[in-house]
Amino acid sequence: MSAEPRRVTKPEVWTQWESRVVNGIFPLRRFLGGSNRSAVFLTEYKAQNLADVAIKFVPAETLQTQAQQLVQWGAAATLSHPHLLRIFDVGRCQFGGRDFLFAVMEYAEQTLAQILPQRALSPDEVREMMLPTLDALAFLHRNNMVHGELKPSNFLVVNDQLKLASDTVRPTSNSTTGILTTSLYDPPELKDGVISTAGDIWALGITLVEALTQRTPAWLDERSETASLPAGFPAPFVDTVRRCLNRTPANRPTVIELEAQYKPAPQAHLVPPPQPPAREAPREATPQQNPPKRHVLLPIIATVLLISAAVWVGLRFFTKYSNSPQSTSDSSQAQLQLPAGPAAEAGAGPATGAAPGPAAAAPAPVRAALAPAAPAPAASSPIATNAEPRSKLSSPVSRQPDQPSLPPAATSASVLRQVSPDVPQAIRDKIRGHINVTVRLLVDPSGDVVGEFLEHPGPSRYFARVAGDAAGEWKFAPADTQGSRVWLLHFEFVREGVTVDATAAQ
């Protein structure tokens, strides 16, 4: 979505592409649908032995927008979530003297946009749709990404499972130039260049109204804060939709809040079970049940006898060992020291390599609850912050389970040429501490960089620019051998110089 003029392609022109072969690899078997800006065909992906996949084409714009789109698709291809459509490959091609970009992805049997012209969804169907949708959005938002284009055509069904299209996924960002809004699904703040997670909530609200009524909401004017919902709109969704369609992004609910609203059932079923015994107790003790009273007294008498016997045995045991002060002292000391033992062993275990102490035998829920308290976040950055010398290529560190899977470490065989930014000493002398910049690269099958994206530009435009320029000069092994299609370069600038960590992102 940009304000640049675009050439359009009539939808009927796309059908003429059927039976063509893209780059000698992807045969276009059938036209699945499209618009004046994109087209989707059924094809195959022999690299992974997939007989049915979809390939999407969009016209290529300037070289800068081409690189940005390819890197965006390449970044989405590294994501793994059960409710996000998988992207297998991306690239460029030419038809009729025009350049196009393409993305090869999972084939979806149906979309919400195909269902709504026939009928609206029931409230129960919408609730079922919300759960996987919110799960996918929560995954993206945790990783500072947004879906970007939530609308019925991007709600897809793959093997009876709902998935969101992932070719629109992008990082959150704030631009000073502003972005041209093109549809009702675009949030109001997009015209100011704000791409945030709240924008997905706005689009979700629009989609909910359309899914339930086959119509989109309307406003009396641009200043109106409350949307006009179609007649007969289901009451349980009125409050949710109006909160999602608030013109102020900060006033919209978060994905976590919506998940709490639509996932109360599992917790509600846990409350009733303890209640029935409390109700049955008074009935058992009612005076009308005279015969069973004798049966109630028998257990009570037996319990009293057992307690008396236990007291007698305890007195005998105490009397036997009270004559041995040393034994009593040792026993008490052992009991006082017992809690400290496992902690000491657990602390010494990693350093000494000794067998795990009693703490290692804690139940799984206990270990899981203690795991977040470990001081691991300090090491979550892929760039070391100490002053010790490092090699040019280093292995990545561990990440949290809910983040995208970590790439493998770079090897000398996968990186054929490294280029480090040339920063004059006079500029480095002004650095206080360290400056980190992360660049995401998309590499073509021959190993050349075809696009770079500043995933973390850092605090300085100068260092972001020199890092991006240097990253574009790198050379990698061909993708059909041991090379990756997407790479992350982590630059760290300090007074002494520049270090770079390269990791493969898929």
Written description of the protein model:
With 506 residues, the chain is α+β, with helices and mostly antiparallel strands. The protein has 3 domains: 1-107, Phosphorylase Kinase, domain 1, CATH 3.30.200; 109-265, Transferase(Phosphotransferase) domain 1 (Transferase(Phosphotransferase), domain 1, Orthogonal Bundle); 390-504, Fusion Protein Consisting Of Minor Coat Protein, Glycine Rich Linker, Tola, And A His Tag, Chain: A, Domain 2. It has 15 helices and 20 strands. The chain has helices at 11-14, 63-77, 112-115, 123-142, 197-213, 238-244, 255-262, 265-268, 275-284, 293-321, 325-337, 340-352, 364-370, 425-428, 461-471, and strands spanning 21-22, 26-27, 30-34, 39-45, 50-59, 87-95, 98-106, 110-111, 145-146, 155-158, 161-164, 170-171, 173-174, 194-195, 415-417, 435-443, 449-456, 475-476, 486-494, 497-504. A 5-stranded antiparallel beta sheet has the order 3-4-5-7-6, covered by helices on one side. It is globular, with a radius of gyration of 32 Å.
Describe what is shown at a glance.
By secondary structure, the chain is α+β, with helices and mostly antiparallel strands.
